[in-house]
Design brief:
heterodimer, A: alpha+beta, Ubiquitin-like (UB roll), 25% helix, 23% strand, B: alpha+beta, Aldehyde Oxidoreductase, domain 3, four-stranded antiparallel beta sheet, 4 helices, globular
Chain lengths: 83, 150
């Protein structure tokens, strides 16, 4: 599974992309974030406040409670600020 | 006509309007967003998702064409490093009647702000920099169009 990071999430973690293989008990985006937070102190800082995070699976916006089953790409980022 | 572009280069709003004018409708509406130099801002850096951002812009343009009686939609968003006074986003709509052109244009810029994956980092003359936080007013403006959905 490919994980993409954007904006301050990317800066805090120090990379824009990583390829990971989460364990089977990680089933939704929220669980994935909790699991990613254990990978390094930088991940823990970036993911400390889940209320500030949004996500997309295979380039569609999803909620943190949505399943990651079958996902090829999960993007994690702050709320968007376009326009 | 549907024209959607995501680009680092500047755009020529006049040329974009002329293309919409040429569609033969009764009205053309447009919005051009320009980088403000508030609080000593020197640079606005726009980050985007390489595939998803353009796909979302195309989806928003297609939805507008479906919802309103339009002859054309142009949506241009820049990314990369921008400076005060630079145009950043262009929304143009052409329609037979003004209502559709005006409503579709307002809806598109409101929805671009909250639904297109862009992130802005501001840098200031004194060396500070910060990521722009979403504004509740932007969410409220975008939600208005969902509420009005017919």
């Amino acid at each position: 599974m490919e994980i993409l990071y954007f904006a301050w999430v990317r800066e805090r973690i120090g990379t824009n992309c990583e390829r990971i293989d989460p364990p089977a008990d990680v089933q939704d985006v929220s669980g994935l974030i909790d699991w990613l937070a254990t990978r390094s102190p930088a991940h823990a800082v970036a993911f400390a406040d889940k209320s500030r995070l949004r996500a997309a699976i295979d380039q569609r916006f999803v909620g943190l409670e949505d399943s990651i089953a079958g996902a090829r790409e999960v993007a994690i980022f702050p709320p968007v600020t376009g326009g | 006509m549907i024209e959607v572009r995501l680009q680092p280069e500047p755009f020529d709003a006049g040329a974009e309007l002329a293309r919409l004018d040429a569609l033969g409708g009764g009205g053309v509406a447009s919005f051009t967003g320009i980088v403000r130099g508030d609080d000593g801002l020197t640079e606005l850096m726009l980050e985007h998702h390489a595939q998803m951002t353009l796909a979302m812009m195309r989806a928003l343009a297609a939805e507008a064409l479906e919802r309103w009686d339009l002859l054309g939609v142009t949506l241009i968003h820049r990314h990369g490093s921008l400076h005060p006074g630079n145009p950043i986003v262009f929304v143009g709509t052409a329609a037979r009647h003004r209502g559709a052109a005006l409503e579709a244009c307002a809806s598109l810029i409101d929805r671009l702000k909250t639904q297109a994956p862009f992130w802005k980092r501001e840098s200031f003359a004194d060396g500070r920099s910060r990521w722009v936080e979403p504004r509740a007013a932007d969410d409220a403006a975008a939600a208005r169009w969902l509420r009005d959905e017919r």
